[in-house]
Amino acid sequence: MLIAGSDTETTGLLGPDGTPGDHRIIEFYASLWDSATRTKVDSLFLRMDPQRSIQPGAQAVHHISLADLAGKPLWKAVAGDIHTFLGRADLVVGHNWDGFDKPFIDGELVRAGLAKTTKPTFDTMTEGRWATPTGLIPNLGALCWACDVPYDASKAHAAEYDVEVMMQSFFRALDWGFFQLPQPLARALAA
Q1: Are 140 and 168 in contact (CB under 8 A)?
Q2: What is the pLDDT along the chain (191 residues), one digit of tens a residue?
Q3: I need a labelling partner for 67 at 20 to 30 A (CA). Which of 5, 27, 132, 170 fits?
Q4: Domain 2-190, what fold?
Q5: Alpha-carbon distance 95 to 63, whole Å?
Q6: Is-above-0.85 flag for pTM?
Q7: What is the rounded distance in angstroms from the CA atom of residue 108 to the CA atom of residue 33?
């Protein structure tokens, strides 16, 4: 079974209606992991020209400027690659995947004339309440701390770094029994 870990960085946040509106993805990273060996077998890292400004609050978090994106491809030029890469996975894992990254990716795919992602998902943020003393949803640093995975806040909010530490935490929490996959996936993972 192949598991994809994925993350995005964007020009801003989702709107009140839960859609990206005119905000765009500017960085995408995904890695494919062999569930049996827990080894990374492939990865895809892309930066895209959003053809719009980046909100100052978003840039303060991910530190990506429009100058960093000069000459990068437009989303429509890489949408097929991203769709195909995620389509190779049996499960897509992300931290705030269901509430942020998936709506952004699906919005961009539809805008490019492609179908939304349909693979089963696992959101380590919403499933990670066990990682905080009060049962609140954990940020990625708190999840890593609970899983004894080193976390460097100075490297955070870069899609590749976030996916790497998230996947280490995901596999550790799965091994410890804190994360439970849906039955069909759990059976496939055990096979």
Answers
A1: no
A2: 999 999 999 998 888 888 788 899 999 999 999 999 999 999 999 999 999 999 998 999 999 999 999 999 999 999 999 999 999 999 999 999 999 999 999 999 999 999 999 999 999 999 999 999 999 999 999 999 999 999 999 999 999 999 999 999 999 999 999 999 877 777 777 76
A3: 5
A4: Nucleotidyltransferase; domain 5 (3.30.420)
A5: 19
A6: yes
A7: 24
- Length of the chain (residues): 191
